[in-house]
Prior knowledge:
Blueprint: H1 3-14, H2 20-35, E1 37-47, E2 56-69, E3 73-75, E4 88-90, E5 102-116, E6 135-148, E7 153-163, H3 169-179, E8 196-206, E9 210-211, E10 216-227, E11 230-243, H4 247-250, H5 275-278, E12 285-300, H6 301-304, E13 321-333, E14 348-359, E15 372-384
Amino acid sequence: MHWRVVVGLLFLCLTPVVHAGMVDDFIEDYREANRNSDTAYRLDLENDLFFKTDNNYTDGIRFTRKLISRSTYVRTKEGKSWLPGYDLEPYIGSPQAGETYYKKTFNIHLGQNMYTPDNISKPPGPLGPADRPYAAWLYFGVYREVYSSEEKYWKYGVDIGCLGPCAQGERTQKFIHQYISNSPQPMGWDGQVRNEWGAIFRFEYVAHVLHYGDTLDLIPRVRVAFGNIEDAVGLEATLRWGRFNSLYDSHGADTQTIESVAQAAGEARSDVAAPLWENPAQRSEFYFFARGKANAVLYNATLQGGMINHSSPYTVNNRPEVFEGELGVVYNDRRGCPLFDAFFPGMKCSVTTSFVRRSSEVPGQALSPYKVHKFGRLQIGFEFD
């Protein structure tokens, strides 16, 4: 039996695990958070223009609205859910020794990723052994995050979207090249991966944060992606150095890069001290981070074409192992943004910038430090009480 059929059958069999009751609870939880939360907005931009290249993962943009619940939660006595967040209830009162507390946020985002071969000046045609096809992925996602006072973190949800011409990658790239970057126009989008609607279920978990004094920590993390656009498992570690607040104050655990295989950056440290719940720290954050990641990739539709629609004219196999490194800096002003204080008093702002290096995703390309893809990343965020 072809492995694509196996993955498809697993997808169909496991989807009912997210039963109607869980979906209803998720929606009701979102409504409650919408009534009693702070709101943050974030714009993520990624592009290889920073390195004066134009190939592989060439551009990504995502806009996120995050609802940060003001409530503190504890697990219900009968809570046995396999996903954290479904067995929590609001906690009222002073913190108790030995009790585990939780915070929750909800993310809603809209994004687009674009991919091109090495030479965008060539017309559509057969791909070389070291090249990749044109592709674009336009998606909408909803995610829940759960933060534990034991320094654990969970994030899970789904991206739903369209791969292929329906994602408008050709129109977007030609607009950027003509009006923003003054770059050569791409000539091969007629040969891009064909249309397929898709869903990617994602799960992330941090079991513990390792601290080395007050200014250095190490955050190991596992990620799983499953669907008809991407199937992958990733292990990563993020080292941070500098000044950072409690996890519950900064809510920065999801500051990853946009692209599906390129998740990144770090979450703030969790202080378990009781005053945290009564009077969260408001100091600004400024820290550097270095991240390494290893991915086991079973399926990548941007390279191999749709799992259901097999009509794509040019496709290549994916490399099962992909490695990635990132260096960056984060600034998060918790006191307010001076430039916008006259219009939005008390608004908090943050900026993250980094550079990412990724090993080849195509088997025909040599797996070496000299054959890497590079792109830059800029993230700008605003939070309103």
